[in-house]
Amino acid sequence: MASHPNPLPRKAPHLNPLDETTSHSTRLQTTAAKSLVIPPAGEEANVKGNLQSSGEEANESLRELCINQPLAGLKIVVTRPREQAARLTQDIGRFGGRALLFPLLEIAPAADQTALHMQLSRIAQFDLAIFISPNAVHYGMAAIRAAGDLPPALRIATVGQGSAKALRELGVANIIAPTENFDSEGLLALPELQNITGWRVLIFRGDGGRELLGNTLKARGAIVEYAACYRRNKPQLDVTALLNDAPDAITATSSEALDHLWQMLDGNARAVLHNMPLFVPHKRIAELAHQQGWRQVLLTGAGDDGLLSGLVIWAKQSIENRGQRPGTNPPGDPI
After folding, report:
1. Is residue 94 part of a domain?
2. What share of the chain is helix, strand, coil (3-state, %, to 5)?
3. What is the pLDDT of residues 106-157, one digit of tens each?
4. In what order do the strands lie in the sheet with 223-233?
5. Could you tell me the CA-to-CA distances from 102 to 78, 252, 256 in Å, in that order?
6. I need a surface site. Which of 44, 136, 188, 257 has the fewest CB within 10 A?
7. If pLDDT is split at 50, 70 and 90, which confidence band does 174 have?
């Protein structure tokens, strides 16, 4: 299909799935990368670091570590929606661990398809389309192509590289996307989105969500509409069965999912899980986790690669520091 123009020339993207920077953190380090442990507020820590490596170097390091099965004997909870959990689940298995699938959100097409189709009938009137997530790409592009296709002059942007990758797989080129800080703030900082007075912007997203992106674009003079192309449902899950599986660590990839998990837990379950290592790929999720009372919050790089690297580093350093597998420490004794 035809390429879509960018309004300004950009540097070639440097894809680094392991980039994440934060403050108030303690540093864990291996030759593969660095993983950040964020202590609860009030603890003395103010180390600024990052989990960095070139994508190629990180992937090579992960391949080498895979041979040694660093996650052997560990049970890791994967809370991604079922349709998006396959890769992380498989990678945990490749590294010797056992993935416990516990999908905290279900993704489905938007309930109001008529409103979406009416918006898409006017898509040629827009200057910029922004896809918030891979789900927005999946459901948004399906609706767009059912109605026709992307107009050749329409600029395309995404919040993260996962969404950009999903678009490229669908044949979309020249995508505006941050190469670090994979969130609304990162996208808003790009030069392509500074001088947008009078632009008509269509933001593909789920039902609800953060308003920062749209509000900031409006403040810069853009006319913004939201296209709700999918919805997130919160299933009721068997927490008792999860606890009976005796997991060693949990991964959480969205604040909404983590909040849903916390609301499902009774006092006893919270007492058990709040001591468990919680791996998150974004500082906003880490902040929520600390507000909820989680004691071991580990901030990793973005995406499945970042989560997997963080898990491997944690497992290896736990053995080095304690001479034993993680998960064998008494409750309340953080690594």
Report:
1. no
2. 40, 20, 40
3. 999 998 899 999 999 999 999 999 999 999 999 999 999 999 899 999 999 9
4. 106-109, 223-233, 200-206, 128-131, 155-158, 175-176
5. 6, 10, 14
6. 44
7. very high
Of 2, 287, 301, 38, nearest to 152 by C-alpha is 2
The yes-or-no verdict on residue 10 having pLDDT over 80 is: no
Angle value at C-alpha 237, between 231 and 240, nearest 5 degrees: 160
C-alpha of 252 from chain center = 9
User: How many domains are there within the chain?
Assistant: 2
Question: What is the domain extent for residue 29?
Answer: 21-81+246-322
Q: Which of 306, 251, 259 is nearest to 280 (CA)?
A: 251
pLDDT for 58: 52
Band of residue 61 on the pLDDT scale cut at 50, 70, 90: low
pLDDT at 322 (0 to 100): 55
pTM for this one?
A: 0.68
State both tokens at 43: 């603890």
Backbone angles phi, psi at 204, to 5 degrees: -85, 125
Q: Is residue 182 part of a domain?
A: yes
Six token digits for residue 293:
């009372």
